[in-house]
Design a protein that fits this description.
alpha+beta, seven-stranded mixed β-sheet, 11 helices, about 40% helix, about 20% strand, globular
Length: about 350
């Protein structure tokens, strides 16, 4: 069975119903579904609806909290500390970025640290929230260890993603969204759903041996060796330790850490606090134009900037629908059967 295609609106409605069925209030379920399908539309399938079974299992195990009471615990004119209460990540992170944007309008910068959230989806979504308001946006996240420090055969850091977005004027926002590993674990999961191997250099098995078998991959490898490892370590210092909720040290030293716990930073920077916004946006466009004017290597049609491949995929999938591999479809069918949620025709 090959990939099936499904309209984004249909997939989002179905996914909202699934999340409502596991206990999320309607608005929270809609937010969660929207962020996942947003990722699928842009080809970031590793952070799309293939995550639904994982989230269901987490709720059953007491990890993700569908009835979370997230709240602001500390606040200054420019900063926030938010207790997430193990909320579904997109729910509390959307709230946090909205708060950071509000702070930035008043103070020039809004910096929010989130403690005790859960999987947040594609972090570029939140950085782009700020860019949509004419601001620069940043988002980072940390988790317990799943990536080997350079030279190690065991997990010691997390493959902490970072996303940065800035607005253009005539061109779309430029957005970098990357893990500090060679590939995110979601891409390993996607390979499992597709029944294909992963490339060499992505992961180690449970014994610390290199593997291309996606079903055996347990430990990710850092992008750029020491560079990815070093960034991930510093992100722990800026998020988890800053929130008084360290994740790496307790995990490494044998203390219990609640499975799936994440800490995060989202920030918004008001460009107008530093320079003219229109001039800034125009200069971003000019920078992109200059990059695209560079001579290219043989076989490379053009120089791309961060976010462009996703926009090309977005246009195609809005027109043709989102492709879902057989493994993802099977998992969504099982979720619907378990929860009594009607399946869209495309998934039957």
């Amino acid at each position: 069975m090959g990939d099936i295609r499904i309209r984004a609106e249909t997939l989002e409605e179905f996914t909202t119903a699934v999340f409502e069925a596991i206990g999320l209030p309607h608005d929270d379920a809609a937010t969660e579904a929207h962020v996942l399908v947003w990722a699928n539309l842009r080809g970031i399938d590793s952070h799309g609806v293939l995550r639904v079974p994982q989230y269901m299992d987490s709720v059953k195990a007491g990890g993700m909290n569908p009835k979370a009471h997230y709240r602001i615990e500390r606040e200054t004119p420019a900063t926030l500390l938010i207790e997430g209460d193990y909320a579904f990540g997109p729910v509390v992170t959307t709230f946090a970025m909205q708060q950071a944007i509000g702070k930035a309008r008043q103070a020039g910068v809004g910096w929010a640290v989130i403690r005790n959230t859960t999987h947040q989806g594609a972090m570029g979504y939140y950085a782009l929230m700020a860019a949509a308001e004419g601001m620069a946006g940043l988002a980072i996240v940390c988790n317990p260890p799943n990536m080997a420090p350079t030279g190690a055969r065991a997990a010691g850091v997390h493959n902490s993603p970072i996303a940065i977005a800035v607005p253009g004027k005539e061109r779309p926002a430029v957005v970098l969204d990357m893990a500090t590993s060679v590939a995110a674990f979601g891409k390993v999961n996607l390979a499992v759903d597709k029944g294909i191997p992963i490339p060499e250099g992505w992961a180690l098995d449970a014994d610390g041996n290199p593997t291309t078998d996606a079903t055996l991959a347990r430990i990710l490898l850092p992008a750029g060796g020491y560079k990815g490892y070093g960034l991930s370590l510093m992100f722990e210092c800026l998020s988890s330790i800053m929130a008084g909720n360290a994740l790496l040290a307790p995990s490494l030293l044998g203390r219990t850490v609640r499975r799936g716990t994440q800490n995060s930073v989202v920030a918004a920077v008001d460009i107008a606090a530093f320079t003219d916004v229109d001039a800034y946006r125009a200069e971003v466009d000019e920078t992109v134009r200059g990059l695209k004017g560079l001579p290219t290597m043989p076989g490379t049609p053009e120089v791309l900037v961060p976010g462009e491949p996703e926009l090309a995929t977005l246009a195609e999938r809005q027109a043709q629908g989102i492709p879902l591999p057989a493994g993802t479809v099977s998992n969504l069918q099982a979720a619907a059967a378990e929860l009594g949620v009607p399946l869209p025709a495309e998934l039957q």
